[in-house]
Specification:
Helices cover about 45% and strands about 15% of the residues. With about 220 residues, it is of the alpha+beta class. The protein has a single domain (about 1-155), classed as Nucleic acid-binding proteins (OB fold (Dihydrolipoamide Acetyltransferase, E2P)), CATH 2.40.50. Strands 1, 2, 3, 4, 5 and 6 form a 6-stranded antiparallel sheet that branches. Strand 1 and strand 2 form a beta hairpin.
């Protein structure tokens, strides 16, 4: 896992350099416009920065028409060792999904994909100790050398959101979607930010189709 994480860190560093400043700024504005503006004193600030950067690297097309990690692979192909290229290609095939932890046995997690019910063995290393059975995750999985790993960007939704998640996924399947959509991930990220800020509001009042608190809203602090 340390190797694949190190390669991703290297890629993120390259893709957030000076040559990508304008694209990165535009992406940041677009991302926080739909997921909610994040502030440095938010408990989730650091993780939200990570999830934004992973969205930028994996999902948001550049002006040239390809996602940043594809651009990195094209631009640096001649400089990558065979193993670095293999890891980058594995990262390019990452899978963004919604999961429920079924079994936690560090350093291994057994996750259930809420989309299709598959059970997935994940090599989580020391971070497995921070997971609990029934945790709900918005996460990205990467398979490399016949093992599956988590990227660093993980959002934990409250247990009370399970019914909402399942209903949304069921509606997408009925509508013919091939998996969870970007719009759903954005909506869930915005809901989680509200949940983190407004703990006095019941989960089911936040995880619904018409959330009442605006994405950029903040709770008054004592």
């Amino acid at each position: 896992m340390s190797e694949i994480r190190a390669q991703l860190d290297k890629i993120v560093k390259a893709l957030t350099g000076e040559g990508y400043a304008a694209e990165l700024q535009a992406a940041r504005q677009a991302y926080y416009a739909v997921t909610g503006e994040i502030f440095e004193d938010d408990a989730s600030f650091e993780m939200r920065m990570i999830t934004f950067l992973e969205w930028f690297v994996f999902d948001r097309p550049l002006a040239r028409g390809v996602v940043p990690i594809r651009a990195y692979l094209e631009d640096h192909a001649a400089d990558l060792s065979p193993e670095e290229r293999e890891m980058t290609e594995a990262l390019l095939r990452q899978h963004h999904g919604l999961y429920r932890a079924k079994k936690v046995k560090p350093p291994v997690l057994h996750l259930k994909d809420l989309w299709d019910g598959r059970l997935i063995r994940v090599e989580a290393g020391d971070t497995a100790q921070s997971f609990h059975a029934d945790d709900l995750l918005d996460a990205r999985l990467v398979s490399w050398k016949e093992k599956t790993f988590l990227t660093e960007g993980i959002l934990f939704h409250p247990a009370g959101a399970l019914d909402y998640l399942q209903a949304e996924l069921k509606a997408l399947r009925k509508g013919g979607a091939g998996g969870p959509t970007e719009a759903l991930f954005f909506r869930l990220a915005a809901m989680l930010l509200k949940y983190d800020r407004y703990r006095n509001i019941k989960t089911e009042l936040i995880y619904k189709n018409a959330p009442e608190v605006p994405p950029g809203g903040r709770a008054d602090k004592d």
